[in-house]
Amino acid sequence: MSTLLQILITSLQAYGYPVLWLIVFVASVGAPLPTSLVLLAAGAFAALGDFDIALLIVITVTASACGDSLGYCIGRRWGSKVLNWLERPGRRRLMSPANIARSRLSFNRHGAWAIFLSRFLFSALGGVINLIAGSELYPYRRFLPFDIAGQVLGAVIPLSLGYVFGVSWEAVGDILGAFSAFAFMFLLVIVLTVILVRSIQRSKQEMLIRNRVTDAATSASGPLPL
Amino acid sequence: MSLRVKLILIGILLLLALATTAIAANATYQAVQRFQQQKALAAAADVRTIHPWMTIPYIAHYYHVPEAYLYRSLHIYDTRPPRHATLHALAIRFNRPVDELVHQVQTAILNYRKQHPTKFRYPPRIAAQDTDPAHTSGRMWL
User: Fold this and answer.
1) Degrees to nearest 5, angle at CA B128 with B124 and B132
2) What is the ipTM for the molecules in this complex?
3) Which of A153, A167, A175, A186 gets the highest tally of CB atoms within 10 A of its CB?
4) What is the pTM assigned to this prediction?
5) What is the DSSP letter of B55?
């Protein structure tokens, strides 16, 4: 167990709910804190009666919703300016304006899933997704419900697992971490496969068109007179 | 970028992603196996599962040893023992290495089990009342 995690758990036991709120809030803004492990430990302590499990869920959801909203506001305030600057035509940039416009469109279409899944399945990406959602000017009215829905799962899963498995919560944390990486990579494989299949189909179509053009040119010139 | 170069790049990325997925799947499988071992040890109340994040009441509950006995074995004689202090916090407070403290607790539990071969399976509260001098003196007064 890392020293940071030991310090966080010791603080949780010493100061209780306010410390948990602070840890979850800071992590939701984007700080790399092992929140899932702290929640597993809190669940384990709740099984003994040190904490109330329902109150833990409420505290976790409110803290993460506040932290996510702050991340979203930071993205909206400064991130959108960076994107606007990148979109301006002219100098050579890292990303072309066309690519940025396409990413904007894509986030508006699939952003809800990204927000929802990054709350509990790919929690390491949560902070970045908040910034992107703000930068892309994703409507806050749509951001918040998906955020809260994901955060409820993000709170209930580790707290209940910690509550049920008690002493073994560290091993449960290892499973959650490894499974999260596996799920992310599996999703990436699916996306890349879809892109590859589409690219092959496009390549085939282009080849077909090229062949037809060549055939048409050959037939137009006609057979050579004997 | 030509379509052929794009296809090759996507193919390489896909192969890398597949390899990483296989590694992640293996890591998940191993984590599940470790969890099963840990769970079996925890179910048997094996002292190897004692960790610095545990508090004395937590250890007392899960390993069926009276709290007072554990405090005594750690030489903590406070009238109001620090119930919410983890072993890590106790190590800092009493300026002792945390590993030494964990080892002391493990030894104390094993000694208690030797002294009470049948009792240690009882619920902790019953065991606490039987061995805790405070409870005993209370009963005498009654």
Assistant:
1) 165
2) 0.77
3) A167
4) 0.80
5) B
